[in-house]
Amino acid sequence: MTYLECSALTQEGIQAVIPTAVRTAFSVSALSKKKKSRRFWFQGISFFSNNKPDEPQPPVMPPAGLAPWINVTTSTFAEDWKRLLTDDLVEPDVKFISGNNTIFGHQVILAASSVIFKEIFLTPKKMNKVPKKYSSIFEEIKWINGDLRSNNYTNNLNIEVSNDSHSRESAEITLNSSIDFEVFNKILRFFYTGLPGFAEVEVEDFVRDVKETSKLFHLPWLTQVCENRLKDEQFLNPSIGTWLNDETGSVMKNLFLNKSNLSDVQFIVEGKTVYAHKAVLMARCDVMAAMLGGSFIESKNASTCELKDTSLESFLAILEYLYTDHAPIEALDSVNIMVLADRFCLPRLVTLCELYITKKVDRMIEKKVADGTEFVVNLLLLSQTHNASQLSKWCLHFIATNYSVFESSDVFSLLKDENKEYVEEHRWPPLSYLKELEEFQNKINVEGTKEKCKVM
């Protein structure tokens, strides 16, 4: 008996275990078949065969083959937020000062990932005085107008600011002198990505400093991440980061999705105003980044953009995906969402829609395949127009493996050129099998005629 171990988490031993398991399974199967063959066969004749030695044998129908697998693209949620820190994508609206060092942030991200910043940025009355409960981490908070990067701005003292997009102000926050700048860098990274981004080799004292400072910022999960690192159990941390990103997305949806809180851009869709946030849109979607900060016509008046040829329902689904990495595909028109996802160059959302749509087709044809012929053919043509390559391959396979049903339908004539060639080449059952079946039936008919003659 062979004994092997593997880990699904670290992938250790996987390459050795899988081939060994497959070989073992086949060897046992072959041995079992060999024993059965010896039991039931003698002198080349099966005791359980119903066929006479000279009787024609029916052809074996080849398998139809499995449908192409729909792979969902890996999430880039954390990496997209990280780009806000490393790339100059969006003008920041938070400036942190630590001695002679400065680092920038974005209110919408910080408010979604931190209860402290949620209170600071979403409180209608913004005062320069630091609340006593936060005096151990902040020395001063200023609300200002102007470009934070250029230092060309004015300080507004003791003002009351509403959180709508027309009166948004930036924050300049001076950290307490006890907060190490490099430690705060890791904490800021944690706010954005769910992990502090420790180097492979990190000084333990530095990790301990991050751990202690995380308690001041009310971050128990960062404390846990640091403890895992100190215990050499950092392999547990990626799952924590994934869960935290999901939680941040959920909070972001509740606080900001189509809400005026901290909004700095609006869309007009079907005559309705939709509120959004440039930091989210430009980090998560390259098309939005070009629209709001590039050479698009919309960027010239980037505070308000009108979108045509788009349903409000589908656009809100796209926004929900950008804010949360999830979309209400099952509850809404999944095909329209897929089309709009392609328009905004969101490949992962396209793959999520592809997967759900194939499940929808499976449910549609539970009673009979003919119920889905028109939908599948139109879906094939649509998927090829909107870069849903996996769905296109799936539809072609579905049509080919149900060839006789589709051939008799009215929409079969819509298949042209390469689509028609593929379906004809991969039709099931294949023509070769049908030809063999016809020959077999002819032989059976001939044998039947001979038997009748003998009886007469």
TrEMBL record:
Residue ranges annotated for the BTB domain, each copy included? 92-200, 263-331
Q: For this UniProt entry, which segments traverse the membrane?
A: none
Q: What is this protein called?
A: BTB domain-containing protein
